[in-house]
Amino acid sequence: MTNNSCLRTATASDGVALLRLWGLLFDDDAGREEPWRRHAAEWFACFVEDPGSAHFPVIEVDGEIVATAIGSLELGVPNPQCTKGRAVRLTNLVTLTEHRGHGYGTALVLDVLSWARSIDADRVDLSATAEGKRLYDKLGFRMTSAPRMKFVL
Questions:
Q1: Cα–Cα 20 to 30 A to 4, which of 80, 129, 146, 153?
Q2: 132 vs 23: CA distance, rounded Å
Q3: Whole-angstrom Cα distance, residue 61 to residue 3?
Q4: Strand 86-95 relative to strand 123-126: parallel, antiparallel, unpaired?
Q5: Does the predicted TM-score (pTM) go above 0.85?
Q6: Torsion 68-74-78-80 (CA) sign
């Protein structure tokens, strides 16, 4: 972290800035009106004021949000790997290219881990890109034997 950076929790007024950053994850042109943006804005508005269900840490530098992540609680059936059935999904970790290398990603992940502990979650799950895997390995995340699959509706 740098002297002019600040880690804080996003507020409802940060929605536009967060949507811009989330679009970078998908190489989405921020000028286009994509259906996912409307849904994401509605989802954010619903959960930004619900700290028991989702957490939105941001890094601000000189008044501009330059990095963010999302932690969201997923409730499931308790099992041997998730004894209370409370898992946090870590998603949308993104730092603007020109602000990388300052420890912002590490700070955001650690903040989500702290939040996950505070809401009594069993674990934190994520899907890592090749670029992000080194950070997650360094922080203690481990690959599991269960491959992730999806079915798009």
A1: 129
A2: 17
A3: 9
A4: parallel
A5: yes
A6: negative
Give bridge partners of residue 73 from the DSSP assignment: 88
Q: Which stretches of 14-95 are assigned E, i.e. beta strand? A: 54-55, 57-61, 64-75, 86-95
Whether the CB-CB separation of 104 and 59 falls below 8 Å is answered with: yes
Cβ neighbours, 10 Å, residue 15: 17
Q: Which amino acid is at 86?
A: R
Place of tokens 């481990």: 142
Task: Return the residue matching tokens 């895997």.
Answer: 133
CA-atom Rg of the chain in angstroms: 16
Distance, CA of 129 to CA of 59 (rounded, Å): 21
d(CA 9, CA 67) in angstroms, rounded, equals 12
pLDDT 10s digits, 72-129: 999 999 999 899 999 999 999 999 999 999 999 999 999 999 999 999 999 999 998 8
Instruction: Report d(CA 15, CA 55) in Å as an integer.
Output: 13
- Which of 31, 32, 7, 22 lies closest to 96 in space, CA to CA? 22
Q: Contacts from 136-140 at CB under 8 Å and sequence distance 24+?
A: 136/109, 138/106, 139/106, 139/109, 139/110, 139/113
